[in-house]
Fold:
Amino acid sequence: MMTTSWDFARLLEMVTKVKENKAINDNDRIALLREMQAQLPPEKMSISANNSRLIVDRIIQEMLDGYQAQKTTAKKPKSSGKRTSSVESPKKELLLNPNGNTRGKRTAKTMVN
Structure:
């Protein structure tokens, strides 16, 4: 388990190698960086190198944000056409006959002898 700042320095070196590797496309790079970030030990487990852990976590997150920003700016937004349906009035009556009997017809009472 990574508990010393030396371990995090080695991990940071691996993160930069993933970033600079030209054989890996952006989607695979994002997947690798997410897995690396998920496998960082919890802060409670790396008390002696907590600052190193935070630095590596921040660098990985910045790389992820950079690749995701590139993906979102590359997509062209869809242009929506004009509406063809008319907008109905919000004050439209809900009931057909608001003053009528809403329960229905009364059933005939049966006589008990």
Remarks:
- The radius of gyration is 32 Å.
- Helices lie at 5-20, 26-38, 50-74.
- The mean pLDDT is 79.
